[in-house]
Amino acid sequence: MVHKLAGALALGAALMLSTSAMAQDKRVVKYNADYDPIPLAGMEALIADFEAANPDIDIQLNNFDHEGYKTAIRNFLTTDPPDLANWYAGNRMAPFVSAGLFMDVSDVWADNGLDEALSSAAASMTQDGKKWGVPYTYYQWGIYYNRDAYKAAGVELPGEAGVTWDQFVANCEKFKAAGIDCITTGSKALWPVAGIFDYLSLRTNGYEWHMDLTAGKVAWTDDKTKAVFAEFAKIQPYVTANHAAIDWQDAAALLVQGKAAHYVMGNFAVGNFKEGGMTDENLGFMIFPEITPGLPRAEEAPTDTIHVTAGAKNPDDAKKFLAFVASADAQTKYNAAVNQLPTNKNSTVGEDPFLKAGFASLSNAYALAQFFDRDAPAEMAKAGMEGFQQFLVQPDQLDAILERLDQVRGQVYK
Amino acid sequence: MSTYWKANQRRLAPWLFLAPGLLMFAIYVIIPIFQSMWISFYDWDGLGEKVWIGTANYAEMTSDPNMVTSFKNNIIWLVLYLLAVPAGLFIAIFLNQTVSGIRIYKSLFFFPFVISQVVVGLIFSWFYAPNFGLLYLVIEKLTGTGIAVLADPDLATYGIIAAGLWPQIAYVMILYLTGLNNVAPDQVEAARLDGAKGWRMLWYVILPQLRPATFIAVVVTVIGALRSFDLVSIMTEGGPFGSSNVLSYYMYEKALSEYGYRMGYGAAIAVVLFGIMMIFISGFIWKMWRDETER
């Protein structure tokens, strides 16, 4: 990781040298980010547009390795802050906001009417009544399924409205009989199991309760928590057996090969499914089934954000760029390039059927959760995800797991 | 000044030569040890204010099941890793013969130690991998159901230790091979005339002469077992649910990983690990000191 980081720094330095030589009289905005190749191309196109409109500003993008960035950001924010930095909404940004490392950008929101245009993401960008950054993209979670696996197991395909929870569990039994994993996941990196838990929690007890749980206001030993795990227990026997040893991409391969029928995942996985040879014909998407009847439907939609750092040397131009990234046109263009959803409600969504399904799912959702490891503080998130993984492997240990999680809750939230 | 220098030149010179090394050692080793101890009394996320909490981190450790698991795994590591010593000795004796091409065989046996630990971890991960790993497929052929070693909380640690033993045995083997070169042929000859062979020859004649090699082999193996970080990090990241954690990785996880940033707690784990290592290191130093003063 250190080597990658050093490489990224060296590369960044080389890029800076080459661009600054050409643009000596421009005002420089340094921007540290963690883009994978496709999003990187999308953001570079946006930056080119911004620089064309503002010829006196030079945005210097310094791209880091995605995993290394999570460690690097703590170092550069405290020692040598750039003007702009990528991060995530929700509780994930709380440590930096509390430590005074991000700048309050409520003025950008007020001046550009963002409170209205970005209303769906406003709550997750707010802390202490102020806005601390701008969201530029998000994506839906849901159940992706393989239609061929349905045919192989002789199970009726879900209709427009999806299936009921009882039907879903009953189908799992049929998939098992056909030797197909009903639900696959790869929990080596832990977070994929949190997606399953989040949905079970949101569907069993609703959004407010789930937020109380991740905020530490509800005990893990509460009866309502046990109700969530009771639903979890219904699907536990049908989850890919060796999930703890495989990564999420390996599980995606199982779905592609028809060895698994469903995958609770984020929309970014569609790229992997299609690279593996799936098409719009045999890849399906459905909203996670309703469990407790009549609960308003909440969805998972992790949001990526850009922040102005507290130590920014050129905050005025950085805020100008922030306003640009938040604009409807910029978000339309970027999200079309990366196949995700714009956070600006005035943007238009791409033609991809999964994007459209996701947009439909999110736009009439009652509320949006960020994701377990972004809603809960880091230590609680880690312990929780280990607990979910353990429950899938050793369901009989449930009481011990919940005791443990409640002990961690007592330490984390003070 | 110059008279003082002249009078004490012989006494001062060694210290002057040692000074740069001592300075570096103090800055990069000694001072950080005490800093870690200091930080272990604080609650600190690495960004905000440090809060003095006394020994609360240590108190938390006693009731932290992950800590208990890590500690237990460290002991398993220590015990099983020492298997590398007899295994390395066995291979060294096996290879200590003059057959044509023996140098090639020796280098092939030494090969695993040359590979980076990260690569060893990756190779074994694939070896154990469910659905396509060699071991998994072989077990599936034999018994009908494959075993994904790294997904099983009871087996994961043993799977990682097996991966670690592979290069460690090669390392111990090379230590013994050089040791066997120095075994006095006349003593072997004399023992043979007295009718010693097989186990008795090994135990009473060869092994006593290999004592320096055995000592080094035990030292590097014990230290290697205690700092077993890279394999755990590559193969399981401590999972499934912390069951293959060891102290060195747990320390990293608590202090520096994505979900950690509890510098105080991480430092407290480091202090405990340091304490355990000190038991062994002092033992080794004491033995070396005794050996040297006896001569």
Summarize the structure.
The complex is a heterodimer of chains A (414) and B (295). Chain A is of the alpha/beta class and 414 residues long.
Describe the overall structure.
The complex is a heterodimer of chains A (414) and B (295). Chain A is of the alpha/beta class. Chain A has two domains: 2-136 and 304-356, Periplasmic binding protein-like II (D-Maltodextrin-Binding Protein, domain 2, 3-Layer(aba) Sandwich), CATH 3.40.190; 141-300 and 377-412, D-Maltodextrin-Binding Protein, domain 2 (3-Layer(aba) Sandwich). Chain A has 20 helices and 13 strands. In chain A, helix 19 (378-393) packs antiparallel against helix 20 (398-412). Chain B is an all-alpha fold. Chain B has one domain (65-294): MetI-like (MetI-like fold, Orthogonal Bundle). Chain B has helices at 2-39, 56-62, 65-81, 84-95, 102-114, 117-128, 134-143, 156-181, 185-193, 198-209, 211-226, 230-235, 247-256, 263-294, and strands at residues 42-43, 51-52. Chain B has a two-stranded antiparallel sheet with strand order 1-2. The longest helix of chain B has 38 residues, at 2-39. The two termini of chain B are 40 Å apart. Classes of the chains: A alpha/beta (414), B mainly alpha (295). At the A-B interface, helix 3, helix 4, helix 19 and helix 20 of A face loops of B.
Q: What is the strand content of chain B?
A: under 5%
Q: Nearest-angstrom radius of gyration of chain A? A: 22 Å
Annotation, overall tally of beta strands of chain B: 2
Overall pLDDT confidence of chain A: 88
How many separate helices of chain B?
Answer: 14
CATH architecture of the largest domain in chain A: 3-Layer(aba) Sandwich
Q: Average pLDDT across residues of chain B?
A: 90
How many structural domains does the protein architecture of chain B include? 1
**CATH top level of the largest domain in chain A?**
Alpha Beta
Helix content of chain A: 40-55%
Instruction: Please tally the β strands of chain A and state the result.
Output: 13
Q: Uncertain segments of chain A of ≥5 residues (pLDDT<50)?
A: 1-5, 17-21
Largest interface: A-B, 36 and 30 residues
How much of the sequence of chain A is in beta strands? 5-15%
Head-to-tail CA distance between termini of chain B: 40 Å
CATH superfamily of chain B, by name, is MetI-like
| Overall morphology of chain A | globular
Task: Determine the structural class of chain A based on helices, strands and strand pairing.
Answer: alpha/beta
First and last CA, distance of chain A: 33 Å
Q: Return the CATH class of chain B.
A: Mainly Alpha
